[in-house]
Write the structure tokens for this entry.
Amino acid sequence: MNITEKILAKASDKKFVAPGEIVDTNVDVLMTHDLTGPLAVESFKKIGAEKVWNNQKVVVILDHQIPAESIKAAELHKTMRHFAKEQKLRIYDVGRGGICHQVMPEQGHVVPGAVIVGSDSHTCTYGAFGAFSTGIGSTEAAAVMATGKIWFKVPQSIKIVVNGKLSKYVTPKDLVLNIIGKLGVDGAIYKSTEFTGSTIHEMSIAGRMTLCNMAVEMGAKNGIIEPDNATKEYLQHRVNSLADFIVLKSDKDAQYEYTVEIDVSKLEPQIACPSSVDNVKPISEIGDIPIDQAFIGSCTNGRLEDLQLAAQIIKGKKIKEGVRALVIPASQEIYKEALAEGLIEIFTEAGAIFCGSACGPCLGGHIGLLAAGETCVSTSNRNFIGRMGSTQANVYLASPAVVAASALTGRITNPTTLEAKQ
Amino acid sequence: MESKIKAPTIKFGNNIDTDVILPGKYLILVDPYELGKHALESLDGEFVNKAKGGIVLIGGKNFGCGSSREQAPLALKYTGVKCVIAETFARIFYRNAINIGLPVIECAGISEAVKTGDDVSVDLETGKIQNLTNNKTLQGTNLPSFIMEILTDGGLIENLRKRMKKRNE
């Protein structure tokens, strides 16, 4: 069996599972947030359940519309605070956490081998730690809260083997955009995507999170990477006990629907052009694209190393006149680290705005929205029509390095080209 | 829930994502009828009026991709969509639709066989789809019995209430 099959077998008390089989699975952790949580709470009450199946295993994180941008959002937050108090759940409130997919592993709610579901599509991020994690809807989240169980169809798996060394300013984001461009937005629909190879094993935890985070953008049920020493190093001071480490690996004879091999040594920065995440081109082929806004942040690319990379490019320079640059760290912890390292000063001196940790403009619900005819280059994960504001706006997805370089020049720019000119 | 549906269709293309089905800015609305007022508005400003009398929505590949927002199928259901038939679905949308009692059927070739305005009849028990306008018949994927049971109960909430009651008896 491969790692995904092993986790699903263990969680459904079976020795063996095969793709296509429907399994009734025990859930280790359920995560919900301020936009999908209230509907889950309503459904939970309608089911007639009084208590969640295990209050240590349900985590509430407010991140989408924070701080509340309207009275309606404030009411939703109130609903979640009340529910967390009533059920004695761990809640990460405004200023205490950040974006759910960063907070979950950061605060020790993710361990390898666990089954984690969340009422957010990017829940697949935790595959970076060797967990099986996937997004579900609000009503299903309510059912999990009531029962601690969920059904899954054991997915077919695609093995993505990545080798070679990424060039300077070419990042895991470029790799995952390249993969999505190759497989397509429905290329992994209903399936598991397992990332492996020397590039992955040498990749930082932050980079692995970026990869697994975007597995859903090709329709995947989950993205997963076998845990190793880097995983252990990241988690050991965050989880309750090392005994929680159940390190599962794919068998040598594990079955995959097919294998994709990628050599990244010649990969250049990749751009997902409007309005589909698989409309991916190497930066040298996109032509001259002037921008109005540059956004660095989100659960995809708001981690410390993303901010460090962007700051390294921006340091001592000015954001191009006419461009708005927004930087939003993925968590309060990252905010504090960015402050301590002087990154916030670099961004603000350059003319960027540095905001408190939240989802921000990524889903077009809160701050930093786009007007008709405007163009944004963003480190986030979706460029759908209307995703970040007006349906007449254009969103280009890129790495933090490309977004930083573009903020300086006012057009989508390869950081390597910019560096050569300086 | 009716197991046989007869209604005119409205057809969309591939990769209809949940952001166009229901933009993020409306996720703070809680009343499903309010959500329904904004269904698919960024693709067709008239969709809500067209769907009012009850329609079958036809999609291409990867219908409902993107966000896990259950408000997307809810908006469709409360705007008058009786059933969604697509070549393939994004998995979270598929589960969400079933869980809120909106029937979904996968059917290879549906986008070729149906055009907007055609009348179709759908048998949810058998997965048989008939285009009453051009007399073409297609076979959609049969839903497993436990999923059919969730739909028959009107969604996961009722289904679970029933199961929990049984367990307590």
Summary: Chain A has two domains: 3-262, 270-421.
